[in-house]
Amino acid sequence: MLQWTTLSLELGLLALALVLFVLDLTRVSRRLITLLAGLGTFALFLFSFTVPSTGTFTQAFILDPFALFLKRIFLLAALLTLMGASTYARVRNYTARMGEFILLVLLATLGAMALVSARDFLTFFVAFELLSLPIYALAAIEKGNPLAPEGALKVFLFGSLSSVALFLGIGLLYAATGTTFWTRIHTVLFPVLFQLGVVLLLVGIGFKIAMFPFYMWVPDTYEAAPTPVVAFLSVAPKAAGIGVLFRLYFEFFSRWQGDLTAWITVLAAVTMIAGNLMALPQKNLKRLLAYSGVAHIGYVLTAVAAGSRFSAAMALFYFVAYLFSNMGAFLAVAALETQGVEPTLEGSRNLIRRSPLLAAAFLVFLLSLGGIPFVLGFWGKLYVFLAAGKAGLWGLVFLGALLAVIALYYYLNVARWMFIVEEGEGSLHIPGSLLAAVGIAAVVVFAGGLVPQWLVVPAVHAVMGF
Amino acid sequence: MESFAGVGLTFLAAVLFAGAAVVASRILSPRGKPTDRAKLEVYESGVIPRQDAHVRFPIRFYLVALLFLIFDVEIAFLYPWALRVKELGVVGVVEIGLFVGMLLAAYVYFWRRGGLQWQ
Amino acid sequence: MVFWGNLLNWVIWVPIVAAFVLLLIPEQRTRFQGWAVLAVTLVEFFLSTALLRAFPRAGYAFTLDLSWIPPLGAGYRIGVDGLSVLLIVLTTLLTFLGAVYSREVIRKHVRTYWIALLLLEGLLIGVFAARDLLLFFLFWEAMLLPMFLLIGIWGHERRLYAAFKFFLYTMAGSVFLLAGVLYLGLKAGTFDLDALRGVAQNLPLHVQTLLFLGFMIAFAIKVPVVPFHTWLPDAHVEAPTVGSVLLAGVLLKMGTYGMLRFAIPFFPSVAVRQASLWMALGVAGILYGAWMSWVQKDMKRLIAYSSVAHMGFILLGMFSFTVYGLSGGMLQMLNHGISTGALFFSVGMLYERRHSRLMEAFGGVAREMPVFATILGIVAMSSLGLPGLNGFVGEFLSLLGAFQRSHLLGALGVAGVIFAAVYLLHMLRQVLFLTPHQPREPLMDLNPREFFVFLPLLILIFWIGVYPRPFLRVLDAPVAEIQRVIRPHLSTSLQTRVQEPQHTPEVYP
User: Fold this and answer.
1) To which CATH superfamily is domain B2-112 assigned?
2) Do the domain assignments include residue C139?
3) Which DSSP letter does residue B48 get?
């Protein structure tokens, strides 16, 4: 008997996406549809607390607390994106494509949700593509923007490349083991093919999570794509990629590959270094956040390198912190853009005078991303370091902490333009929905920093299954 | 291990075939500079090319092609379902209904957005 | 109920909560904000003095022990001993005086200024009250931000450079601290200070050495001990007056406090082994700071370097591990906060009048501002350690302690006292007495507000100078505690030298 309840979240999301898609073809106003999309996503988020947290649907799909935790992250990411999107679409003149926008965001979310539940390579690949394809279209949705085609093309080409690598990897793994089910592998026939397959698998995921050296597409795409999309792009695919990496780690690599720690350690270190150093000279806020996002993936990879249940929990927690701080920062940038402000350091000058609330929220996000105590991001870093320390990776801990100091330089540099540079006139009137999204994120980042255990404990519980 | 022998043989044959073609053309092709303008032309089965190979089709052709693809895929799924309709039972009917419904939604979208208007 | 009933808890959180409440007051109502902040800081000062009534006694008072992040073993553990309580009172006093002073000086972003000031106060108190290593680290790090803003927004010309330098320097030091904190926390499964102590002392010696150095680097940058001091002159010079006052008066003490509270009790055997090294660095700071002060033209820079010298005395006293040295070092922490705070206030007032910090810009101030000149004279004397004023007691005890350990280092330290006299008297002569080359606009003498800022500091200067016993008695228990931890690790010959006298010496009747 198939356990359909296992799929209830995915089915619900699919139904929501399709209903809204069809509604968009009728005369229902786009505002209402956006509102319904947001409410529906939120309802699903609430619903996710009532579904049974374990179950399998055939051998290819598993629902466990780990997956469920990540699914909630995706739903929240989609929700924040939708909250930011409608005003942004109006300013950037693509309200006419808002129906498609919603559909694509929800489908990408569906892909991410399926991805972290996948337990065989075919489901994995289909979910991976379902996550990727809508993003290509989303990156190009702002047709009027002359930069959009370039950014969209970059994400498309690199995305396709990663799919190819992934598919080849999967093929090789199948050739080497004779099955696509991770748990059904009994023997490895061709170790060489197997190794090659694992490497290609990592390459494919590496593109998605923007790991070194596969992050080249990130800044250009982030700069060109509509900012709410970027906010989504900077969290959901990365969280999905890391989630699947952990699942592979526990259910697949650990059984057949032995220790990947050395590899991932090097990758984490290099990713942190590259992201932080590349972010230093950036003048465009979106590019800066793009590179800082690469650096953050380096920190999460530190947890992956630790490769324990504890570190998986800490990575989950890190993503919660990252979700709110990073999406908050991007949405704040989007709020600036809706007022015709260039998303650059120069453009953000004297924000404290022009929009004190936005400036305060932005400061909270920057502090969180930089890892200053009493905001959520600090705990993320601390826990990840703790996990790495537990695994004995003190070198990574030290490197990460050192790079965090460098990171603070560029985060504070943003704060400097917003708070200390005094030229810059004209007060901004940030639209309500965006301000609400930014505000919610800021409040969570701040409150979560005071009582992190409310988020850590669920994260720890979420990895009990492994 | 034996089951992969076929794969290996096919791979071997492919390499040999491709390699043989390259080697053969290297041996058989005339050497030195081309003496004749015709030898510099694009090979079009002896016919002299009349225009650039880059021809721009109206985008609607692509749209129709995509639409065709939708139904093509639909058919590809419907046949196997039809063969096993009894075994799959109610669940199968519901599933295939969902599947067709989704494609239908895409079709309606295509229609409403003017994909079928030729002018 | 435990949470709400704890006085110390109130002392920590009142300013922080007040800072957030301030956000609700409209930005234009600066007068009201000023009065409100004044009220809060005054209340805060009285609250903190109420902490004093529990002393002297051994151990911690006003303790609160709540589980906070159970999976980590990190708790919300606070409590104060004599040392913390003195530093907390110093913080609240200087913040209150700072609020009095800046109410009519700060003109731009007034509300943000108050918020930064109150946050800084609360977080500083948190640093001194934390009895949990992680909590301490949190406060330690978080404190940087308001200070960064204070320097960066309201500072002088090169404020951004100074703010970034200050921030990044301290953060770089914190990396070592963080690594040490995490390592210890993982080893012990808790961040409770008392529990950590037992665990830390049983680690292999090379691990202990590494951890000790990690802690010490972070603290040494904060103090600053000589090779790590380069951020200090810039930060002090560019910070606004109140920023400098708090920076010199309180922030620097975080370093020495950290050494006394964490580095030394956690790793006593390493601390004893390396004592000569750190004492030597202290002497280096004394001499280097004095020499650098000598050649400065900028008064703030002069005082900044004099801070380096004074902190050297503290280090010298502390690492002698004698009763004299330890109590002298601790008392000197308080003294330095008072004297240097007062000096920075003076320079700030001069700057308000003539918009220059160069000594050449002044001269003959004694004639135009007699009251101010008297006060500056007293403060400078206290800073250079004139007997009868507070500075003397601390320095004398520190040097006494140093002599018990090493005559050479003690002698070099005494030389520093002489240099201090040279540069401070040089400044007094230049600013107060020398006739200026060309006539300048006359300066107004102190107004009541400014006089009020000095009043409590002057009282303390004389009080500690003449009758330091109450202060030393408060410090008795912390000194005895350090001694208790250190003693087993001292060699026998040192033990006899360090032990006598059994009680805090009464230098004054």
Assistant:
1) NADH:ubiquinone/plastoquinone oxidoreductase, chain 3 (1.20.58.1610)
2) no
3) P
Does A352 contact chain C (CB < 8 Å)?
yes
Amino acid, single-letter form, for residue C241 = T
Enumerate the residues of chain B whose CB falls inside 8 A of the CB of residue A21: 105, 109
Domain extent, residue C405, equals 274-509
Average pLDDT of span B49-53: 74
Q: Which of A78-92, A228-242, C473-487 has the highest mean pLDDT?
A: A228-242
Helices and strands in chain C: count of H runs, count of E runs: 25, 2
Q: Which residues of B touch A189 (CB under 8 A)?
A: 1, 4
3-state secondary structure of B3: helix
Mutate to test the interface with A, among C169, C171, C177, C238 (most CBs of A within 10 A): C171
Distance between CA atoms of residues A159 and A129, nearest Å = 9
A457 Cβ contact list (under 8 Å, min separation 6): C70, C71
Contact state of A367 with C145 under an 8 Å Cβ cutoff: yes
Look-up of token digits 């089915």 = A11
CB atoms B109 and A21 under 8 Å: yes
Cα distances (angstroms) measured from residue C426 to each of B71, C295, C384? 95, 10, 12
Whose tokens are 């943003």? That residue is: A414
Query: Structurally, how many domains does chain C consist of?
Result: 1
Other CB atoms within 10 A of residue A386 CB: 24
Interface mutation target, options A18, A133, A177, chain B, most CBs of B under 10 Å: A18
Q: How far apart are CA A438 and CA C67, in angstroms?
A: 31
Strands C61-69 and A61-63: unpaired
Enter the tokens of residue C213: 């150095």
Contact with chain B for residue A451, Cβ under 8 A: no
Distance CA C103, CA A49 (A): 52
DSSP bridge partners of A120: A181
pLDDT digits (tens, 9 = 90+) for A390-435: 888 888 998 998 898 889 889 988 988 888 777 777 788 888 888 8
B112 to chain A, any CB pair closer than 8 A? The answer is yes
C neighbours by CB contacts (3+ pairs under 8 Å): A
CB contact under 8 A, A460 and C71: yes
* C48 CB-near residues (< 8 Å, 6+ apart): C11, C85, C88, C89, C91, C92, C125
A401 touches chain C (CB under 8 A): yes
Residue C196 forms part of a structural domain: no
How far the first Cα of chain B sits from its last, in Å, is 60
Compute the count of residue pairs across chains A and C with CB atoms less than 8 Å apart. Answer: 76
Q: Is the pLDDT of residue A94 over 70?
A: yes
Q: How far apart are CA C87 and CA C141, in angstroms?
A: 18
Q: Please, which residues have CB within 8 angstroms of residue C83's CB and are 6 or more apart in sequence?
A: C257, C260, C261, C330, C333, C475, C478
Q: Which chains touch A (3 or more CB pairs under 8 A)?
A: B, C
- Amino acid of residue B105: A
Write down the domain spans for chain B: 2-112
Nearest to A87, CA basis, from A337, A279, A364: A337
CA distance A120 to A177: 13
Residue C293 contacts residue C309 (beta carbons within 8 Å): yes
Kindly state the percentage of chain A with pLDDT values over 70: 98
DSSP string, C11-71: HHHHHHHHHHHHTTS-TT-HHHHHHHHHHHHHHHHHHHHHHGGG-S-SS-EEEEEEEEEGG
What mean pLDDT comes out for the span C419-428?
88
Give the count of beta carbons closer than 10 Å to the beta carbon of residue C459: 11
pLDDT tens readout for residues C392-423: 888 999 999 888 888 888 899 888 888 888 88
Please spell the DSSP secondary structure of C125-169, one letter per residue: HHHHHB-BHHHHHHHHHHTHHHHHHHHHHHS-TTHHHHHHHHHHH
